[in-house]
Amino acid sequence: MKKTLITTALLALLGGGAPLAFAQADHDAHHGGASAPAEANAKLAEGTVKKIDKSAGKLTIAHGPLESLGMPAMTMVFRAAEPGMLDQVKAGDKIRFAVEKVGGALTVTSLEPAQ
């Protein structure tokens, strides 16, 4: 019995932290580690707002390639991550934006006027 407890304790000490370390490494690799803001800014897509549907929380954007998703240029409807984003733009505005899959839906997670 005592040997089992010691073995269990050793396994917990040796192996218990490994999944956390791997999870952190995976998280850092996915989010770019410390350089994430600069990298995210470089990966913003450019587009033109075609339509805003505030009641549905969506906007239609004619956009260039979405490299982060491997998608070519086209016009698509996206969900807005925050309802306030829809108040920041109007049809015809040129924008830079980031898109991620959130809950299976393509979602605009950041939005700024194009320079």
TrEMBL record:
Gene3D superfamilies linked to this entry: Copper binding periplasmic protein CusF (2.40.50.320)
Q: Which residues form the signal peptide?
A: 1-23
Keyword Signal among UniProt keywords: yes
Q: State if Signal is listed as a keyword.
A: yes
The entry's keywords: Signal
Which Pfam families does the record associate with it? CusF_Ec
Superkingdom is Bacteria
- Name of the protein described by the UniProt record: RND family efflux transporter MFP subunit
Name its species.
Thauera phenylacetica B4P
